[in-house]
Amino acid sequence: MNKLIVVGIGPGDYENMTVRADRALQNCDVIIGYTVYVDLVRDRYPDKEFFETPMTRETERCQIAIDEARKGKTVAMVCSGDSGIYGMAALIYELRGESKDPEVEVIPGLTAACSGGALLGAPLTHDFAVISLSDRLTPWEKILKRLECAALSDMGIVLYNPRSKGRPDNLKMACDKLLEILPANRPCGVAHYIGREGEECSFMTLAQLRDADIDMFCTVFIGNAMTKMIGGRMVTPRGYKDV
């Protein structure tokens, strides 16, 4: 049967990949993905056929996956983190349309909000919003509105795609919007290269975050009103201790 499996591989290291994801990659014929993500798994599955495309070629990549599966192969489309959270699962379904060929299976993975949160401590024990600062596909005005709503609701906020060469000021502008609502000393954390060589974390205030040295390999965490530093880690209590 023609089959396409959309696989969330987690943050990048094998230890944070699920058993189900590993089994899918062991049993497939072809592995397809963004170049960086394919390189994360290439050495572990050397007997597979590989296809890769660069950034901004998502539609081409997913169409290749569908076409290869329709040749009778079992194809795995790898996504960093989770396969559906900013991943390729939705686009695969869009391109396949109402057809049932190939069969599609979606395997979840550990998204950066989870793995980065664990690195920082426990910043997401209560309600939180995940917002991408990439305005390649979403208008910047809509991103600012989502930031405003999340801040007004007192949710913790996780920022994906905080900065790149093409949008060097997006994090600064996002912080400026948040600082209209949130205090300058709101605890924040940054997880860098989660699950990969060079993994590290840092802590700062929202005012300091505005000018922090941050790139596309960072995930940013902004606490809510209850968030505090405990033992050098960022913690958002839910209230269990007070019950």
Topology of this protein?
Elements lengths: L2 E6 L10 H9 L2 E5 H7 L7 E5 L4 H12 L4 E6 L9 H8 L6 E5 L4 H9 E2 L5 E5 L7 H13 L3 E5 L9 H10 L7 E6 L7 E6 H4 L8 E5 L5 E3 L2 E3 L8
Parallel strand pairs: 1-4, 1-5, 2-3, 2-4, 6-13, 7-8
Antiparallel strand pairs: 8-11, 9-10, 9-11, 12-13
Q: Can you put this structure into words, describing what you see?
A:
The protein is α/β, with parallel strands linked by helices. The chain folds into 2 domains: about 5-110, Tetrapyrrole methylase, N-terminal domain (Cobalt-precorrin-4 Transmethylase, domain 1, 3-Layer(aba) Sandwich); about 115-235, Tetrapyrrole methylase, C-terminal domain (Methyltransferase, Cobalt-precorrin-4 Transmethylase, Domain 2). Helix content is about 30%, strand content about 25%. It contains 8 helices and 13 strands. It has a 5-stranded parallel beta sheet with strand order 3-2-4-1-5, sandwiched between helices. Helix 3 crosses helix 4. The longest helix has 13 residues, at about 140-150. The chain is elongated.
Quickly name the level 1 CATH class of the largest domain.
Alpha Beta
CATH overall fold name of the largest domain: Methyltransferase, Cobalt-precorrin-4 Transmethylase, Domain 2
SS summary, helix count = 8
- Total beta strand runs: 13
State the distance separating the first and last CA atoms: 54 Å
Low-confidence stretches: none
For the largest sheet, list the strands in their spatial order: 3-2-4-1-5
CATH superfamily of the largest domain: Tetrapyrrole methylase, C-terminal domain
Overall pLDDT level: 96
What would the principal axes of the Cα set say about the shape? Answer: elongated
Total number of domains: 2
Strand content: 25-35%
